[in-house]
Amino acid sequence: MQRQCPLCEAHCGIRVTVQDDVVLRIEGDPDDVLSRGYVCPKGTALKALHEDPERLRTPLRRVGDVFEEISWAEAFDLAGRRMRAVRREHGRDAVGAYFGNPTAHSTAVLAIEGLKKVLRSRNVFSAASIDQFPQYLASELMFGDHTILPIIDIDHTDHLLVLGANPAVSNGSITTMPDARRRVKDVVARGGRVVVVDPRRTETARLASEHVAIRPGGDPHLLLAMLHVVFRDGLDRVPVWASGLEDVRRVVADRTPERAAAACGIDAPSIERLARDFALARSAVAYGRLGVCHHTTGTVTHWLINVLNVVTGNLDRTGGAMFTTPPVDLGRVLRLLWGASSHGTYRSRGAGLPDLNGELPVAAMADEMTRPGPGRVRALVVASGNPALSIPDGRAMQEALQGLDFLVCVDLYLTETSRLADLVLPPVSQLERSELDVVFPAFSVRNNARWSPRAIEPAPDALEDWDILLGLATEQLAGPGSGVLRRVVRRVLRVVDAHQVTSLLILVGPQGPFSKARGSRLPRGRRGLTARRVRSIPGGIDLGPLEPRLPGILRTADRTVHLAPAELLDALPPAPTGVRLGAEADGFDLQLIGRRHLRSNNSWLHNVPAMVKGAERCTALMHPDDAAARALSAGDVVEVTSSVGSVRLPLDVSDEVRPGVVSIPHGWGHDSEGSRWSTASARPGVNVNLLTDSTLVDALSGNAAVNATRVRVAQAP
Ligand SMILES: Nc1nc2c(c(=O)[nH]1)N[C@H]1C(S)=C(S)[C@@H](COP(=O)(O)OP(=O)(O)OC[C@H]3O[C@@H](n4cnc5c(=O)[nH]c(N)nc54)[C@H](O)[C@@H]3O)O[C@H]1N2
Ligand SMILES: Nc1nc2c(c(=O)[nH]1)N[C@H]1C(S)=C(S)[C@@H](COP(=O)(O)OP(=O)(O)OC[C@H]3O[C@@H](n4cnc5c(=O)[nH]c(N)nc54)[C@H](O)[C@@H]3O)O[C@H]1N2
Ligand code: SF4
Ligand SMILES: [Mo]
């Protein structure tokens, strides 16, 4: 059977061969309209994940130091009683929620909105605020809605400028581009140029025409100087639907390449050339992702990336940054549920970080669980997340989780987080669920609609995330008569499933029969997409290349793209006058950045033997000059220390990283007592978030700025 791999944003099509409920083989699906046969090693690991004896199959309740298996009815009853009691005693903000990365990869994404609706808590968090919050906020301020996200038209561009992304490994993020390696190589093969701006010579940089080893955090300076050159040399081609141009011209007027050079570690002639190459290309697109999100300047940098695309005439045109026409308009769904996109409606009690669309930044999460007073989180739902490893200041986070009155985790495993839970609710495995992808067509390089049937029949009493999250939501209903209400809602949920909801959303969506949206490209004679049609075509439906959609989809009051929102102008980093180089006064003389690996997926594929075999991957990587200066060599165990904590791990030495930088991957640190993944804990690695500081954030969005962490490295005693 043909379906998709839901592990990362690429959502590759896979063929799963099953006999007598046993998976024999998983391979890439050549019929898939987006991935055309590509699959990475993680995709084939879905079999091992499904079969993993340590994957949970039954709800678990904590009794003292151990877990015991209970029925679903008992589990929901327990969750309901405990959470309603916390709410009764301490108010609705005392029940919080954290939604992790995999929630976006199934219909759980719709169910969490239901849970949020009944919780009505200020204390809702998600992995998005250690990820794409800066992109959301830049979109909100410029396009009027955080869901209007530009996607790179990599398959048609003549010039790709990558800042802080490594699609050759990640396979694309906020641009779904399975087999990104081939797509990057194709740009070069058709005579185009790929420039990768990254402190590390990454897997993507090795495929590129040029690698520019920027100082971490230097991106806004580089972009301001590139814009300076574009205007100075009269290379701007600004579309009519953009406003605020004069303000942009004004703020870049003194941002010369010479002034930017030291701040970004790139010499002025190179900056000039990068700017001219970009602006003079037939089509060009600048693309930024995590490397630039994870900085104190995250939102400013994404704004400048968008501005560069707009003023060179490359937003909303083929080969530039474009907008999709997906089957489901998630922005509209969210607006129906929550009203217009909003920012800073309320703030976290401690650090005063602003909400973005009803979600507080994770950088404030541990503090909101421990800071006394009204509004303190005492009960928490964690759905498909592992905050114990994924959030800055891991020690504080783990202590805060431990201090909760009630923690319920919806997870497949006893992880570093769920081991601390009072109740663990495991959904079916990825191969046991069926779904219509409602998220990633909105981010894909081609418009598409794809259906994933289940490959394996789940056990009769097994539940999907959808059922579990809505079950938890039902249990929140409280007040007079609520017992009856809960019974009625339970009945209703037995007949209303995720498929009915997604079918309806497609029917009224931009590709549906009633839509007049531009960019709908159904084959002639077949008007309007329906879920039934999507389900009937294995490999999915190709709805054509991305098409120009501006200004129609803008949600700003004046229907223009705002090039110069006041918040962003105010937040510009000062023009550099002199830059501190070398040792910092506090002795933290290196800057910490992350890296991803093709066989990892954040914190949770390390229990699959094939995903962790081979050389140790959780290592500190530094430049030979930095190693020599500290009398260190490859293989040494080093101690890496920040103002927050320290970790010990093996050293790797390579000139692929820029001097002054040390790179450690995240998602490791599987040595906690009580977690239950024996393969992972045999080679635990260390949790890099024991070093990162939850007070380092992008000032505007509150996104965690983990790449701004300063450390020192020495031989471990
Ligand atoms: N220092 C540093 N920290 C980072 C990052 C970084 O680059 N550097 N990256 C950040 C980013 S981009 C992200 S997205 C976050 C991720 O942060 P999280 O989302 O908190 O963590 P994950 O490691 O993705 O954990 C996912 C959990 O969900 C479980 N799971 C997997 N599939 C399912 C499912 O279908 N249903 C359910 N219920 N559970 C499931 C897994 O067992 C695992 O425990 O980490 C962030 N943290
Ligand atoms: N194999 C695999 N694929 C994944 C994941 C995974 O864990 N494994 N995770 C998924 C998730 S949740 C996400 S969000 C995406 C992330 O997708 P990407 O953003 O493409 O992935 P990263 O590897 O985090 O790339 C960030 C890059 O930024 C660079 N960088 C660090 N600091 C700076 C800086 O200051 N300036 C610049 N210009 N560059 C900098 C880093 O060296 C790194 O190469 O990947 C997804 N895909
Ligand atoms: S790149 Fe790998 S993990 Fe991501 S969807 Fe494709 S097969 Fe799955
Ligand atoms: Mo992410």
Automatic annotation (TrEMBL):
<keyword id="KW-0479">Metal-binding</keyword>
<keyword id="KW-0500">Molybdenum</keyword>
<dbReference type="Pfam" id="PF01568">
    <property type="entry name" value="Molydop_binding"/>
</dbReference>
<dbReference type="InterPro" id="IPR006963">
    <property type="entry name" value="Mopterin_OxRdtase_4Fe-4S_dom"/>
</dbReference>
<keyword id="KW-0732">Signal</keyword>
<dbReference type="InterPro" id="IPR009010">
    <property type="entry name" value="Asp_de-COase-like_dom_sf"/>
</dbReference>
<dbReference type="GO" id="GO:0043546">
    <property type="term" value="F:molybdopterin cofactor binding"/>
</dbReference>
<dbReference type="GO" id="GO:0051536">
    <property type="term" value="F:iron-sulfur cluster binding"/>
</dbReference>
<feature type="domain" description="4Fe-4S Mo/W bis-MGD-type">
    <location>
        <begin position="1"/>
        <end position="54"/>
    </location>
</feature>
<dbReference type="GO" id="GO:0046872">
    <property type="term" value="F:metal ion binding"/>
</dbReference>
<comment type="similarity">
    <text>Belongs to the prokaryotic molybdopterin-containing oxidoreductase family.</text>
</comment>
<dbReference type="InterPro" id="IPR050612">
    <property type="entry name" value="Prok_Mopterin_Oxidored"/>
</dbReference>
<keyword id="KW-0004">4Fe-4S</keyword>
<keyword id="KW-0411">Iron-sulfur</keyword>
<dbReference type="InterPro" id="IPR006656">
    <property type="entry name" value="Mopterin_OxRdtase"/>
</dbReference>
<dbReference type="GO" id="GO:0016491">
    <property type="term" value="F:oxidoreductase activity"/>
</dbReference>
<keyword id="KW-0408">Iron</keyword>
<dbReference type="InterPro" id="IPR006657">
    <property type="entry name" value="MoPterin_dinucl-bd_dom"/>
</dbReference>
<protein>
    <submittedName>
        <fullName>Anaerobic selenocysteine-containing dehydrogenase</fullName>
    </submittedName>
</protein>
<dbReference type="Pfam" id="PF00384">
    <property type="entry name" value="Molybdopterin"/>
</dbReference>
<keyword id="KW-0560">Oxidoreductase</keyword>
<dbReference type="Pfam" id="PF04879">
    <property type="entry name" value="Molybdop_Fe4S4"/>
</dbReference>
